[in-house]
Amino acid sequence: MSRLYKGILFLLSLHLCMIATAQKTTVWIVRHAEKDTAFINRQDPDLTATGQQRALDLAAYLQNEEVVKIYSTDTKRTRQTAKHVKAPLEIYNPKNLSGLLDLITQNANGKSVLIVGHSNTVLETIEALGGKRPVTLLTDDDYEYIFKVEIEAGKLAVVSFYHFGQVHRGGTAAMH
Q: Which domain holds residue 61?
């Protein structure tokens, strides 16, 4: 085999390796769906009927996204929000968001994942993934937001947001 041929093969394989490692990972992030607030002291509430419908709407929204992993906090409402999305679920600690980023890059590089969190963790999660907050605040009435964070090595994270399901305060949210 000639040196030129070996050199071309080496450069081609190096180029293919660079393409393989520079894949874009898509992270979908939502707050859990509407929870039952009937019992004020209840520690780990279930979803309401409206929340159960939103969980179905989430699965419909993501049905063509080929989600390979779901990361959820360890509460019933977050797990119930994710239960209709067809992917394995793993519990994460929202106080260790850098660890979550490590899990995503190790287990889902170049693929799509879903993170289900809370109103006080969603925006912080976006920042931990290298993105900028697309909204300044999530209130207790904001359930219909879905955030998309696209991560690619060596580039700034790209953040967009959409709405899914019924708008919590009435009306219908736009689907993508």
A: 24-163
